[in-house]
Amino acid sequence: MERFDQSFTQQEPIPDAGIEAAIAVMRHGRLHRYNTVAEEIAETALLEEEFAAFTGARYCLAVASGGVAMATALRAVQVCPGAPVLTNAFTLAPVPGAIASIGARPVFIETTEDLTIDLGHLEVMARATDARVLMLSHMRGHLADMDRLMALCNSLGIVVIEDCAHTMGASWNGVPSGRHGAIGCYSTQTYKHINAGEGGLLITDDAGIAARSVLLSGSYMLYPRHRAAPPAEVFEAMRLDVPNISGRMDNLRAAILRPQIALLAERAARWLALYRALEDGLSGTLGLRLIPRPAAEAFVPSSFQFTLPGWPAARVRALVARCGARGVELKWFGAPEPVAFTSRYDHWRYAEPQPLPQTDRVLAGLIDMRLPLTFSTDDAALIARIIRAEVLAVGQMLQDALDAAAQGLRLAD
Q1: CA 222, 210, 188, 106: dihedral to nearest 10 degrees?
Q2: Is residue 274 part of a domain?
């Protein structure tokens, strides 16, 4: 019986250029984002400039985490306490957490079988709540039909903030993730596409949003030192009115991240190869549904999902346990209680969730798995063989139990 023996949480090392840049920052000791000498340009300012160029955005702000990026974005579009903010029911806790952190009210939208936001339910809830902001989570790297979504939101007067924690480098019909809405928010946490341990990035083309974000991030009156921000005159009308919440990224993490931007295209190709190897190995497995990927979607799959439609909870638990015993770490979004990083909308009581039957059906059979780049395509093929074998084995166990029960009924008669 084959077994997988690698870690699902082991990432690649930081590239040498990032290590050298980080050591240089530690040697001179100027870690604070505005602590420079003479004509020196801060690593944080350079990262913002380079990431803006990578995405094609006018402005960029580097912050302490993806959650800080989202909360800053909500404040920058002036969401008020108590205001409803639409968001995906299928997401991770930092997304509703960012909404709740500013006193706003998350309003969850149903999830489709393809793990994207349900546009029909989005329209219903937008009209019912009069919400003016959508925090759109591209959860686990699955992009909705962004042309339809933006047309709908524009017709309803809804400002879109994109949570791109899982879609850095992805695109829809050639438009980069994060460039459809008013703001794009990214994460540089260890398990994302570029790794600083923790961190976030925010992009926008709107000068007012960018200026408010910079002031919120703790610029004091040093905003002229930013290189990917609006000119100083944009700040003048708001500089004494916007609160300072000190969330901008430090120079050490920026130094680690800058060399990784150039590696994104190569990393995307490697992730896609792993994903396709898993798809090939699992295709046609009885009882298992793969998630279709539209032709318009260029995705960067740092994780892999499949569903087990109609499976009872006990059967799903058995599959997770059996795969785990063979070294394959699966996460189940249908578990009744949160487990580590995995939770679902009805666990977040602070958000006052309402029942969402369609999402409940999807999550009941949803399996998720990390895909670190420390894996090879041969590793992915082995993982697929293990999952396929255990899906079929659990199915056979169920069939044997049904046959035994039927035999017992016949004997009783």
Answers
A1: 130
A2: yes
